[in-house]
Structure formats: C-alpha cells, structure tokens
Inverse folding.
C-alpha cells in the first residue's frame, strides 16, 4: 500500500510538472452556479499575474471578443443539453487589452446523483499557431498585393528613366539604385527570424524605397528599440500600407504634406509609435474597409493595440506596444 501511495504521489507530481511546462490552464466549472475553480496558469492566460479571488462563467464570457461570443455560448448550451464535450477555439481580450487565441476543452464530471452539473477541462493559448496560420494567409495575399505594387513601381521607374536625358551609364546606375531600394524593403519582411531589428531601421528601409519623400518625414525614434524579426516583418507590412495610403490619398500625395513618426513611453510604461500626417489634402473616415485597413489592424493584433483616426488635418495611426515586446540587440 505504501508503495502504491508513493507511486500515486509521483504520478501527481509528474502531472503537475507537465501542466506547468505546457502552460496549460486547468478549470472546473459548476454549471448550476456558474462559479469556477482554476489554477494560476488559467488566469495568466487571461492576463492576470496573480490568481483572481473568483471566476465565473460570466467573467469568462466578458473576456471573449464580441464576434466570437455567440458561437462559444452556443457550443456551451449544446454541451449541456446533449451531455457532450465542450470544445472550442476563440479570441479573448486579456486584462491588459491584448487579443489572444485560446483552445479549450471541457468534459462532464457527473455528481453522485448522476447529473452533469460540473465540467472539468483545460485551456491553452494558441496565439502563435493562429498567428502562423494567419501569417501564411496574409503573406500569400501580401505577396500578390506587393508584387503588383512592385511591378507598377518598376514600370514607372523604367518609364521615367526612358524619358530622362543624360549619360546612359548614369541613368542606368540611378535606375539600379532605385530598384535595389525596393528590393531592400521587400527583403526586410523575410529576414531570419532570430535577428533583432531596430525599429528605426524598419522605418528607414521603407523610406529608402522612396528617397524623394525623405524631406517630408520627421523621425523621432528611440534608436534603442529592437524587435524580433517576425514582428519586424509585420510592422514593415503596416508601415508599407500607411505609406502607400499616404501617397495615394494623404499627406504624401502633395509636396507640402508632412508625416511625423515618433516613439514615446506612456504613463503605463508602454511604448507608443505614432504616425501623424499633416499639411495634405483634407481627409475623412473611409467609407469602406479595404485590404490595407484590415492588414494594418490584424498584423499587430496579438502584439499591440492599433488605433486609426481620420481628423480633417490628416490621418493618424497609434500603435501601442507593451514594453516587454522589445528585445536586446543581438
């Protein structure tokens, strides 16, 4: 008997270690009262550093993003009505405001009276998996989108060079340099993922592709801010879209227009990157939700809070990153 108890204790310890190592949140829900027991990992997944005093089914629903809430409630109702497992994936808004993906699975735990009045299960953060899936979809769409822009840019540069008077060698070198600038902007999105990239460099690389616009930009970027290459890729896509929109419709569509790019720390210690246009044509809230707007919002949804506004004097995009987002220089 003693050996059996020791073996049981060892098995429990191994299970606890596996749960901790796998960052698995464990929960048990009383379906009658709506009250739930959880472990600390569960609450950390929802953005709480310490275990909350209480947690209910309604607390859980409050964290689900509005677009996913009805479906989660429907699967819960079906699980209770049919006595089947409760399994789902959805997006949550953590206590710190970040949107993350979770995968949850619950199984009925019958009471002494045989009624299914309890559910026990687990929850894990699958944001990285979902990000990879979304990244693949976005990259496919972005490759098509960028390829069209690159072809259009190359066509324009070739046409410009054909009309330019002067030494052929000089014209050729100028054209080659411009094409290389476009290539650098494209390459930055596909660097090795283990390389830390300066935010300042990301912005400069995009600007290198359009050197004539340099005088219209004002940078105040902390040179000590570095991000992972994967985040640099997503930030590059966002800045590319902002610049493209500004060239087509905003401040960069006129020579008098200006774009200010600044970083600063807010009162919560977060790092804020602010894109602000001025002196361009009067702008207004877009009537539709195009690919560019969706890309700007979705690319950074798991890393930062992105807010866009369109006052008459010029478009503004504010990107707020938790300080923990930034990494040390390699």
């Amino acid at each position: 008997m003693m050996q059996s108890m020791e073996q049981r204790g060892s098995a429990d310890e191994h299970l606890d270690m596996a749960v901790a190592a796998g960052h698995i949140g464990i929960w048990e829900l009383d379906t009658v009262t709506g009250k739930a027991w959880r472990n600390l990992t569960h609450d950390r997944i929802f953005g709480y550093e310490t275990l909350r005093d209480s947690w209910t089914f309604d607390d859980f629903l409050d964290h689900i993003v509005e677009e996913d809430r009805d479906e989660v409630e429907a699967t819960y109702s079906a699980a209770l009505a049919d006595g089947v497992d409760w399994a789902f994936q959805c997006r949550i808004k953590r206590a710190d405001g970040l949107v993350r993906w979770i995968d949850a699975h619950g199984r009925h735990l019958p009471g002494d009276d045989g009624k299914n009045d309890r559910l026990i299960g687990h929850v894990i953060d699958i944001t990285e998996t979902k990000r990879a899936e979304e990244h693949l979809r976005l990259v496919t769409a972005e490759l098509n989108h960028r390829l069209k822009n690159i072809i259009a840019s190359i066509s324009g540069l070739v046409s410009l060079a054909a009309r330019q008077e002067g030494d052929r060698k000089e014209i050729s070198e100028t054209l080659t340099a411009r094409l290389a600038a476009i290539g650098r902007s494209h390459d930055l999105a596909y660097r090795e993922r283990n390389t830390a990239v300066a935010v300042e460099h990301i912005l400069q690389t995009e600007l290198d592709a359009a050197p004539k616009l340099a005088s219209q930009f004002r940078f105040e970027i902390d040179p000590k801010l570095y991000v992972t290459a994967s985040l640099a890729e997503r930030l590059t896509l966002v800045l590319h879209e902002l610049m493209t929109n500004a060239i087509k419709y905003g401040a960069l569509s006129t020579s008098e227009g200006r774009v200010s790019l600044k970083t600063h720390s807010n009162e919560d210690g977060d790092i804020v990157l602010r894109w602000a246009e001025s002196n361009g044509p009067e702008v207004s809230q877009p009537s539709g939700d195009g690919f560019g707007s969706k890309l700007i919002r979705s690319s950074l949804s798991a890393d930062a809070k992105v807010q866009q506004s369109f006052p008459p004097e010029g478009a503004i995009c504010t990107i707020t990153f938790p300080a923990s987002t930034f990494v040390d220089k390699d």
